[in-house]
Amino acid sequence: MALRDRCGTLVTALSDTRPDWRVSHVPTGGLYLWVRLPSDDAVAAAEARQAGVIVSPGGRFFATGKPAAWLRLNFAATAAGRLG
Q1: In angstroms, rounded to a whole number, what is the distance separating the alpha carbons of residues 28 and 59?
Q2: Which of the residues 14, 20, 68, 69 could staple to 41 if both were Cys, CB 3.0 to 4.6 A apart?
């Protein structure tokens, strides 16, 4: 239940602070939320790191090359407020 609540908190925070980032699927389990970005995922990950939030650029998780800019967010530990 705690992870589901954290995921919901992250989705809400992203909606409030980053409406240009799109969450196309809210997971019912697991630890990660995938977010589609309007621009470069490596740049967004670097900016998040500067704010003290570590996220993963999605490109490294696609076996055949990334189809778009994505971030993989761990909602078990992500500081949702700082990410925005």
Answers
A1: 23
A2: 69
User: Tokens 């530990």 identify what position?
Assistant: 77
Are 2 and 8 within 8 A, CB to CB?
no
Residue 66 pLDDT grade (very low, low, confident, very high; cuts 50, 70, 90): low
**Phi and psi for 70 in degrees, rounded to 5?**
-135, 150
Residue 55 contacts by C-beta under 8 Å, 6 or more apart in sequence?
Answer: 44, 45, 48, 49, 71, 72, 73, 74, 78, 83
pTM: 0.82
